[in-house]
Amino acid sequence: MKKEQYIFGIHPVLQALEAEKTIDKLFVQKGMDHSKIETIISMSEKMGVSVNEVPIEKLDRMVRSNHQGVIAIASPIAFVSIEELIEPVLAKDKKGLFILLDQISDVRNFGAIIRTAECTGVDGIIIQKKGGAPVSGDTIKTSAGAIFNIPICKVDHIKDAIFYLQGSGIKTIAATEKTDQYIYDLTLTDSIALVMGSESSGISKSVLQLCDEKAALPLMGEINSLNVSVACGAFLYEIVRQRS
Fold first, then answer.
1. In this structure, what are the phi and psi dihedrals at residue 80, rounded to the nearest 5 degrees?
2. Complete domains list, the chain, with CATH
3. Average pLDDT value for the chain
4. What distance in Å separates the CA atoms of residue 23 and residue 16, rounded to the nearest whole number?
5. Distances 127 to 152, 161, 165, 216 between C-alpha atoms, Å
6. What is the pLDDT of residues 124-163, one digit of tens each?
7. Which letter, b or e, does each residue of 23-53 get, where b requires 16 or more Cβ atoms within 10 Å of its Cβ?
8. Which residues contact 21 (CB under 8 A, 6 or more apart)?
9. What is the mean pLDDT of residues 181-208?
10. Is residue 118 scored above 60 in pLDDT?
11. Cβ–Cβ under 8 Å, residues 145 and 118
12. How far apart, in Å, are the Cα atoms of 242 and each of 95, 176, 218, 227, 236?
């Protein structure tokens, strides 16, 4: 099974960036003052790579060798642009189904969502470049390899993706408890993008305001929320039920 690869040290990371290797995240030691690390940061930001300044202790935990203050995580998959994700689906004249993840941070939740998405015929998953869970070995393992069967797109901002989807005739549905409308009340046979929020705070307010519809799941117990991957599965299978 493919896993994420750690590339560490100033020259190896520079070479990886120059070779346009798909880098998922960059970790740089806080307070580093080195011209080549500044170059690495600049190149990474231009390529849309998430750059994280962290204490040296975190870098030491990630790799035991001399990291020289910089570690890159090379993704085991290649990401697609939003145009590459959406346009082939529209060209097939089929009802598309997409998922947008707004700051999902747990790699196992991410992997579980990918696995369910692949099983329910989702056409692609859209994530934000910064703030979300990386495509790690745990993500791959939890997805049971499904990550290699479904396109994943990274965007600068989820809001931009929503505008693009809506402009392409795709309805956006926010999975949120902040509504009295259940998912079962909606007609889900058109092209849809399902928006799922973070484990801690759900969908951000600015994203929620942009969505075409809001929908919740009924909760019968004392706990007032579901795990995000479980909730995503429930939403997706209601879409499958209506389309079957």
1. -110, 160
2. 5-74 (3.30.1330.30), 82-243 (3.40.1280.10)
3. 91
4. 8
5. 7, 9, 14, 21
6. 999 998 778 878 778 888 998 899 999 999 998 999 999 9
7. bbbbbbbeebeeeebeebbebbeeeebbbee
8. 7, 74
9. 94
10. yes
11. no
12. 12, 20, 18, 23, 10
Interval 78-100: pLDDT, tens: 889 999 999 999 999 789 999 99
Among 201, 193, 154, 161, residue whose Cα is nearest residue 177: 201
Please count the residues of the chain: 244
β-pairing, 5-8 vs 50-54, is unpaired
Q: Under a CB-based contact definition with an 8 Å cutoff, are residues 237 and 186 in contact?
A: no
> Mean pLDDT over residues 41-45, rounded?
92
Residue 190: CA atoms inside 13 Å, Cβ hemisphere, count? 13
